[in-house]
Specification:
There is one protein chain. The chain is mainly α. Helix content is 61%, strand content 2%.
């Protein structure tokens, strides 16, 4: 392929060159395929492939530096520079550059000359001009990339001239030659540049300012050879008023050229450095950037300004940073951030974040500049709201001093906002708005304070591990103080009271501070420093904040709470502090730490909602005292006071009330506390949780008041509510109807309501309009007067307005119901956390068994109505808990007590429910639940169960049905569950649309093989039943008979008896094989044959002896019917299974002749007549099939037609070896009959004859110790004679099912004799 490509790419002139051409061409043929493939891989698009091919090519050439391969490689690479595929040109250029870099003895001038001769721009055709131009360009780039061009003066001058010539073809190459020229000259020495400069740079300022490349060349010369440039051009001031417009145009062209690359042009950064060097940066920034590029309203130019701003940050001083970061560029950047909200719209904010992060990381030793830049970007606001996100992560690059300064700046801006220091702007839509309230300073201050408070929290969130503990404490105290307290009189003991407000702190800002404070608590509670949520003193952060809050409460003359405390609330606070001191005595217990966390969080919530949290604190303190004071082995169901509920029930109610709050912190705290108390859980406490999850009750009752998030406030209204409000029967009925309406079709409901409303509205219209709108036509109708018409219009207008209000009210009510439903679902999802904790931490608790049916109820309801996101989340979480944490748990309850009978009833109920489900997924959950209960019952031992078993045995119960072994000591009543699952299995086999499936019963059989042993007779019975039960029974038996667990439950005689029963049933099914008329009957035949093959494999593995005579006769009898339906749909699979079974019985599948095959000529036909065929056809002697037929042609009497020398001569060119004739075991599917004489077998007419030598060889194994072996019995005997090594090996196999003769007495002895005879 490589030589072919080279030949195709050669020009016509090259084909008629010097006489050395044929020699080179002959030499190319000697090149290895590996060498030629290198050039194909170099042009591939994969970078790794290209680099690997280039490296291999260089390694190959290093071993042959003087051979013809080097010349061919250079020629091939130069040819590749001008290929038609544009993506391959840079690949060949890079390979050529590496080749020149590796072999420095190759002259560059010679390579450049070859390139120019190959692609001569003056002689090339017009159609090949573009490839030739790119070939010259990439050739020069290859010389430059090799690193040798700047060292070779002659090659450098020629390359410069070539690039200048290529620069004239701008239509094809644009500015690429000039860019390449600038890159080359930037690498040359000063002396070389002085020599070349007059040739490449014109002494015309207009030309210099005409393109970015010319200007970049000018700046390069000014940087490296300023004296030579001054002699050539003179003194030039690029930033003069005359040159500023030209600079702006050049930068605009540069911005357009990098529009797709999205990068900063080098010319812009060079101009910036020149302006800084010449101390003209303010002029450059103001006139060129802000008043030039920015005023063009051209987004590529704006992006260039943004990139120039980011790149200039490390180069500027603090004063210059103030100029840049308070100008029009940063304001325009803020407008872009606010308006670039569409998904497909380009967003510059991530790129600016990289620029700022790079700057902050690079000036760690200058905290003042870091603070100036970060404060400036935080001061870019849209009507008071900063455009920088609150989670801006560039703060991770701040030095500790800069971070402290930034936090102090944020606090000062919160207390005393300086609106004049902000770079504020309004978008075009905001400017068009006529609402004056949008432009007042109070609104800007409110928006700024909300951003600042969340910015402080995000800093702690992202830098909690790196921040100093004192700085974190400052932020936490600041948020706590301004969220819940107000300064009355400053005091030195509380630094927060010394900071006055320039603008009063409005309620919205306090609510934002409250929400941010609880987010901060979550951060401090979940992240680690030395220990979970602890300070250096070993106490939690919440403990220190509660101490700070207590300090504020004790200074009532200086500080007061936003919501004043009553005497009872203050007492609750003091009791909470006392309980915390009591908990310190139990600090070694993990439960005490959880209670401390709960008490601290509820205590802090007392500052926000005193009325609701006061009662919770009292109950929590009571529960804590009781839990820490009770005995470890105390009964779970008994309490000291019958009128007072146990402490764990009260605490569960409290946790449920706290879960109503949309707070992740409360959710984590509830999980933690419940994990420590779930071991003390009582049935009543568990019922409180299940009442929330039970759809039947939760749909009709409002157990809790669930709070919701607003747009800017996370918590609004009551924080907790644990009183259960019961509804009247009428209200329950109304709620139930509303829920059904929400579940039902919304469109039908709207249509029905619309009809009702239309009817009522029509009646009102008729009553208002009177006779005019009554619907009756009157010929003598009189026209209404003006006053009457005005009155009618007014009445109609009021009527339509009322109708509109009613419709809107109904929509609002519907939306409210939907919102309440969504809140209830979210609450149920949070309550499922408690269930998950119970199942994972206490899987051996007997109360876990009470969770099965409530979880199944949730799954049933969610599967029916899983349209909303909340329903789907609830379903997924419930299914995950049920499947992974409950049913698949390794640990389970081992102390059932008196629950065994109830669990048996529950198993029966679950299996019945599984059979009544509308779909299989729902039934699967119920079936798995029953399997889990079976495992629990099987793994439990109870004296009562054993005693019952003994009584049943004494009563005369059949001992065969009683459990034995380990099963006898378990609580599982095998007879009861057998009846349950046998009923389910019968329903599955007989019911047409049963939700039960085959995998369900396979799981049952594999987990409980003893139960499977009792159910197998049902399957065997249905094997010969109607069509559908037969198919399902065969499928189940196929999988079940292969299970090792099931086999271990049977004794050998029982297993053999079972195999015989199944074989008899299958044999009965196969009597109608091939007579299928419907798809179901065809499937039934397939399943029967598959089951038969499974039986054969099982018998082979177990080495069982079964009588297969009847089966063989049945299968042979159905062969004719199978052949008649051979072309029916799906018959190929049926035939494969049939012949697979027949092969196991020793009957080989006949080879089918191809369609259209001509009859085999007789042996007496003359071979000369075979040649007289139609012209153009292959002679019969050349066909493989005819040669075979000649070799094996038999006479009618069964003797060979010609043997040895009597064979007709072959007409082929080569004499092929004739294989020995083999006697097949059968012909056309029937076994070969044995002759009475063992030494001379009789062949059928279709069986090829054997030579005497072969017959003698085949007669040897039929004699044992000189005596002929007895013929196989006629009763279904398969006459076989080994025909090959594989056949002989199969004949030696101990397959008792291969031949019915082995089922007779002495089969093992005969097999041993056969084996001995073969060895001899």
């Amino acid at each position: 392929m490589g030589s072919r490509e080279l030949a195709e790419r050669m020009s016509p002139g090259e084909a008629t060159q010097s006489g050395a051409r044929p020699a080179d061409r002959h030499g190319l043929l000697k090149h290895s395929r590996e060498f030629l493939d290198f050039f194909w891989d170099i042009a591939k698009p994969e970078q790794e492939t290209r680099l690997a091919a280039t490296e291999k090519l260089l390694e190959y050439l290093r071993g042959r530096p003087k051979g013809s391969e080097m010349k061919y490689a250079l020629k091939r690479l130069i040819t590749g520079l001008g290929v038609a595929r544009e993506t391959a040109r840079p690949c060949y250029s890079l390979a050529l550059a590496q080749l020149l870099q590796s072999f420095e003895d190759l002259p560059l001038c010679s390579i450049l000359q070859q390139i120019q001769e190959k692609y001569d721009l003056h002689q090339v055709k017009k159609t090949m001009l573009r490839p030739a131009l790119f070939a010259n360009l990439f050739g020069v780039l290859a010389l430059f990339q090799s690193g040798r061009l700047v060292k070779d003066q002659e090659a450098l001058m020629k390359s410069v001239k070539l690039l200048q010539a290529l620069a004239q073809y701008q239509n094809h190459l644009q500015e690429q030659p000039r860019k390449a020229l600038v890159d080359i000259l930037s690498e040359v020495s000063v002396a070389t540049l002085q020599e070349i400069l007059p040739e490449v740079l014109k002494a015309d300022l207009n030309t210099i300012l005409s393109s970015p490349e010319q200007l970049e060349l000018f700046l390069l010369a000014q940087q490296k050879v300023p004296s030579k440039l001054k002699k050539l051009v003179g003194s030039v001031n690029l930033f003069s008023n005359e040159n500023v417009p030209r600079l702006v145009n050049v930068l605009k062209m540069a911005a357009s050229s990098v529009k797709k690359d999205r990068k900063l042009p080098a010319i812009a950064l060079d101009l910036l450095r020149l302006a800084l060097k010449e101390d003209k940066f303010p002029q450059f920034w103001k006139e060129v950037v802000e008043q030039g590029l920015l005023k063009m309203q051209f987004w590529p130019a704006s992006y260039l300004c943004f990139r120039l701003l980011g790149a200039a940050l490390p180069l500027l001083t603090k004063e210059q940073l103030q100029l840049v970061l308070r100008g029009d560029v940063i304001r325009h950047y803020g407008e872009h951030v606010c308006t670039a909200k569409l998904p497909k719209q380009f967003k510059f904010a991530p790129e600016m974040e990289d620029y700022v992060g790079t700057f902050l990381e690079g000036c760690q030793d200058d905290p003042e500049r870091q603070l100036a830049v970060l404060a400036a970007f935080s001061s870019v606001t849209n009507q008071g709201l900063p455009v920088a996100p609150t989670f801006w992560r560039v703060v991770r690059f701040l030095s500790p001093l800069a971070l402290q300064g930034y936090v102090a700046w944020l606090r000062d801006m919160f207390l005393q906002p300086d609106l004049d220091s902000l770079v504020d702007f309004s978008t075009n839509n905001q400017k068009k708005a006529q609402d004056a309230s949008l432009h007042v300073p109070e609104r800007a201050v409110s928006r700024l304070r909300k951003w600042i408070i969340f910015r402080l929290v995000s800093i702690v969130d992202s830098l909690h591990l790196e921040m100093e503990e004192a700085l974190t404490a400052q932020v936490a105290r600041f948020c706590l103080f301004h969220a819940f307290f107000v300064t009355k009189k400053p005091t030195s003991q509380i630094p927060e009271t010394k900071q006055p407000f320039s603008f009063p702190l409005e309620s919205q800002a306090r609510e934002a501070a409250s929400s941010a404070f609880f987010s901060l608590l979550q951060t401090l509670s979940t992240q680690l420093k030395q220990a979970p949520d602890q300070t250096r003193g070993g106490q939690p952060w919440t403990y220190h904040l509660v101490q700070f809050a207590d300090l504020l409460l004790n200074h009532s003359h200086n500080v007061t709470t936003v919501t004043p405390f009553s005497a009872q609330q203050r007492q609750a606070w003091d009791r909470m502090l006392q309980t915390l001191k009591e908990l310190e005595a139990h600090s070694s217990e993990a439960r005490a730490a959880a209670f401390q966390h709960l008490l601290l969080l509820v205590g802090i919530h007392l500052l926000k909602s005193p009325a609701e949290s006061c009662d919770l604190l009292g109950d929590i303190q009571t529960c804590i005292r009781k839990s820490l004071g009770e005995k470890p082995r105390r009964s779970r169901t008994k309490a000291i006071d019958p009128q007072e509920p146990p402490w764990v029930e009260v605490l569960v109610e409290i946790l449920l009330a706290l879960l109503t709050q949309p707070s992740h912190l409360m959710r984590q705290m509830a999980r933690s506390v419940f994990g420590h108390i779930c071991s003390h859980l009582t049935p009543r406490a568990l019922q409180l949780i299940l009442d929330v999850l039970n759809p039947e009750t939760s749909e009709d009752e409002d157990h809790v008041v669930v709070t919701d998030d607003s747009d800017e406030r996370r918590l609004k209204g009551a924080e907790s509510e644990r009183c259960v409000t019961c509804l009247t029967a009428k209200e329950q009925q109304k709620a139930r109807e509303d829920e059904e309406e929400m579940r039902g079709g919304g469109s039908e409901e709207e249509e029905r309501d619309g009809d009702c409303l239309d009817q009522g509205f029509r009646e009102q219209l008729m009553s208002v309009a009177g006779k005019a709108l009554g619907g009756e036509d009157s010929e003598d109708e009189e026209e209404l007067g003006d006053e009457a018409m005005m009155a009618l219009d007014q009445s109609l207008a009021s009527l339509f307005a009322e109708q509109k209000l009613r419709v809107q009210a109904r929509r609002d009510e519907k939306n409210k119901l939907q919102k309440e439903k969504a809140l209830r679902r979210d609450f149920q999802i949070r309550v499922l956390d408690l269930v998950e904790v119970l199942v994972t931490k206490q899987p051996e608790n007997a109360l876990v068994l009470e969770l099965l049916e409530p979880l199944l109820s949730i799954i049933r309801r969610s599967l029916r109505s899983s349209s909303s996101k909340q329903e789907q989340d609830l379903l997924h979480k419930t299914a995950r808990i049920f499947t992974h944490h409950l049913c698949r748990a390794r640990r389970y309850c081992h102390d059932l007590g008196e629950r065994a009978e109830a669990l048996h009833a529950q198993v029966e109920r679950l299996v019945q429910q599984a059979g009544r489900q509308p779909d299989s997924p729902t039934a699967l959950y119920h079936f798995n639940a029953s399997l889990y209960l079976l495992r629990v019952l099987k793994g439990n031992t109870a004296e009562g169960c054993v005693r019952e078993t003994r009584e049943k045995q004494k009563a005369g119960t059949d001992p065969s049905t009683m459990p034995t072994g380990p099963q006898a000591a378990s609580c599982l009543d095998l007879n009861l569950v057998t009846r349950v699952y046998s009923s389910a299995l019968s329903s599955f086999l007989t019911k047409r649309n049963s939700p039960l499936t085959v995998p369900m019963f396979l799981s049952l059989f594999s987990r409980h093989p003893l139960l499977c042993k009792s159910l197998l007779p049902i399957l065997v019975q249905h094997v010969t039943g109607p069509v559908r039960p037969r198919h399902q029974a065969c499928l189940l038996l196929q999988k079940t008979l292969s299970m090792r667990e099931v086999r271990s439950c049977f004794e050998d005689p029982e297993w053999k008896q079972l195999m015989g029963q199944v074989l008899a049933k299958v044999t009965e099914n196969l009597r109608v094989l091939g007579e299928a008329q419907t798809k179901a009957e065809h499937q039934q035949a397939l399943s029967s044959l598959e089951l038969l093959n499974v039986l054969f494999r099982t018998c082979k593995q177990e080495k069982l002896t079964l009588d297969l005579t009847v089966l063989l006769g049945v299968l042979q009898g159905q062969q004719q019917s199978l052949q008649q339906g051979a072309h029916s749909t799906g018959s190929s699979r049926l035939h494969d299974l049939y012949w697979q079974a027949m092969k196991t019985l020793g009957v080989q599948r006949p080879k089918l002749e191809k369609k259209g095959a001509k009859e085999v000529p007789s042996a007496t036909q003359s071979p000369i007549s075979k040649k007289r065929k139609k012209k153009g056809f292959l002679p019969e002697t050349k066909k493989r099939k005819k040669r075979k037929s000649e070799d094996g042609t038999l006479a009618e009497d069964g003797t060979p037609a010609a043997t040895g020398g009597s064979q007709p001569p072959s007409m082929g060119r080569k004499k092929r070896k004739r294989t020995k004739a083999k006697v097949p075991a059968q012909a056309n599917g029937t076994p070969a009959a044995k002759s009475p004489a063992p030494g001379t077998p009789t062949l059928s007419p279709s069986t090829p004859a054997k030579s005497p030598e072969l017959q003698k060889k085949n007669q040897k194994p039929s004699q044992v110790n000189g005596h002929p072996q007895k013929a196989l019995p006629k009763k279904g005997v398969l006459g076989k004679s080994p025909r090959s090594a594989l056949a002989r090996k199969k004949a030696r196999l101990s397959l008792v099912i291969r031949s019915p003769s082995l089922l007779q007495s002495g089969a093992k002895k005969k097999k041993a004799q056969l084996r001995k005879a073969w060895k001899s």
